[in-house]
Amino acid sequence: MQRNDLISCHDCGVLYRRRPLAPREKARCVRCGSVLYRGAPPRLNRVAAITLGAIIVFLIAQFFPIVELDVNGYTVSATLLGAIRVLWQEQMQAVAVSVLLFTFVFPAIELGALLYVTLALRAGYQPPGFHRLLRAVRKARQWGMTEVLMIGILITLIKMTSLAKVVAQPGLFAFGALTLLLTVVVSFDPRALWLMGDGLAARDKPQQDRPMRYKALEGARPPLACHACGLVAADSGKGHGQRQHCARCGSTLHRRLPDSISRTWALLLGAAILYIPANLLPVMYTHSLFGKEDDTIISGVVYFWNSGSPALAAIIFIASIVVPVAKLAALALLATTSQRGSRWRPRQRTVLYRLVEFVGRWSMLDIFVITLTVGLVRFSSLAVITAGPGALAFCAVVVLTMLASMQFDPRLIWDAVDHKKSGEKNA
Ligand SMILES: [Zn+2]
Ligand SMILES: [Zn+2]
């Protein structure tokens, strides 16, 4: 019923037969250009060592102060978790929870689960909860935002130098190291670990109806590929009410994500509506000896521009204004063209989709800067800065557009192309 030697392109759905590759080789889809799989299987010792290193650095980054502010000899320091707690106490619970999830919970799940799975595979067995944990690694990876946080920390520090003397603390260096280690960790494809786990399971219980498996594929229905682990299985032809589950990892199998386009539209509409208050309402209130000030996202950009940091102004402008608008426009274009069955530039539209997936998380940058600013300034009693309702709306826009891009099934782009081809064949 299922085949390990087949691989379905994640972005366009074409089936390929796996073949052995040279260690540095990558197999790419000839139709849409996305990477199918890599040559060398990950070396478990290396994966385990780097993941363990990342966990140690993660703990230092989270529990040691990031920065110390020196205001006329009076010093204060702050951790990320401390800053999140300040947001929570200010009735910004939804923003505080989002920041906690993206910067603490999801990276912790990814690293913890990956270490557990690789250590077990290294010891030569498939551990309990193997499939569930690898699925968790994949999900957590989509939502972890350590690299965005790192840039947010740097921007906050530069902002603070105008208020006080800023002294870097161990947490700052640990976040830098964590960002570097995580770029190595995300280059491990969990699907390769799935194959290794399969190899071990097959060794433990040999020869169970193996030759039969390959026959089932030759039926009239094209096979289904699992979104989570990539296993290709024959379509059992179950009707609408019944669901077929992946024999390996247990995920529900779909030919295409159900109601992909209408769900994408609903999430996009929500994001577009919230985008208005996100830009009009203040994201920060400042009360100081010099008076009271409200900051919107765009006034934050203007502040950096006027205070002689045009590069920072440009980064925040791109991350907070350009990226969300471009993402809304790109997803609207993808949804419209797929809905109409357009055959216009499918390869370029697939690249656009990959780009949207890649840049989505960077819009959280301003939220991280706000969190750290609110936390640091509160501890230093220079002024009282509180987060405003604009931050909540903005956070919702980012989450909704990320969900919208995850709901969109890129294979829909290619369905019109396939449809035309099969029509030509039949004629
Ligand atoms: Zn493809
Ligand atoms: Zn699966």
UniProtKB/TrEMBL annotation:
Its main location: membrane. The keyword Lipid metabolism does not apply. Keywords: Cell inner membrane, Cell membrane, Membrane, Transmembrane, Transmembrane helix. GO terms for cellular component: plasma membrane. Signal peptide: none annotated. It is found in: Cell inner membrane. It is a multi-pass membrane protein. InterPro entries: PqiA-like, PqiA-like_proteobact, PqiA-PqiB_transport. It holds the Pfam family PqiA. The keyword Transmembrane applies. The chain crosses the membrane at residues 47-67, 95-121, 167-188, 265-285, 311-334, 355-376, 382-404. Belongs to the PqiA family. This is PqiA/YebS family transporter subunit. The lineage of its organism: Bacteria, Pseudomonadati, Pseudomonadota, Betaproteobacteria, Burkholderiales.
